[in-house]
Amino acid sequence: MTTTxxxxxxxxxxxxxTVPTLEPLFASLASERLEGxxxxxxxxxxxxxxxxxxxxxxxDVLIDLKVHAQKASACGSNAIVVTCSTxxxxxxxxxxxxxxxxxxxxxxxxERAVEQASSxxxxxxxxxTLGPTTRLISTTAQRAGRHCAIVSCLCADAFTSLRxxxxxxxxxxxxxxxxxxxxxxxxxVLAQASMARALRHGGMQGRYLTSPELGMDHIAxxxxxxxxxxx
Length: 231
Fold this sequence. Notes:
The protein is of the alpha/beta class.
């Protein structure tokens, strides 16, 4: 993009990713929802790998995430989105400390879930994602004045299979866990969007939500509202 094109851009949105393969997906989703915006990305796989290794988001991960956000802000970003649900609570913690609006990707999914169901299943393959997502659904329901029964399910063997390069086994385990969980609740929330592929390929029956599309719908609405308010 040239300097002239940059000056004409409606705004600049920066994504912070922990999974490199998500970069083109979110660039496409953002371009569809925020026409004329410049889309940039930062990829730091270590934010997630360190959190998985340690079992929680510790201080140095939080600091590094803050540094990424501050750099994006200093480079002229008008909005910053963290696409890793494992880091969602860290995003909430940092949001008030960054000049530029900082968003977590899974809030739109959480709001849609509590609107649509009174019993919600949460399926994850990582314990570091299951906890933050469960707490997000719970607090979202409370704020909305909704009583939602929440059933959490960890499918840890699926993540182990994925790390070992066995995608077929991962998908099989996710499909089984989803079938078991969806029989107990009205709606299942996928704590990691990567699981949606397994469900689509398996032709699974049952309602489920994922974060990318719903998250970007929600964030784009907030950005437009904020810009209208500020003008």
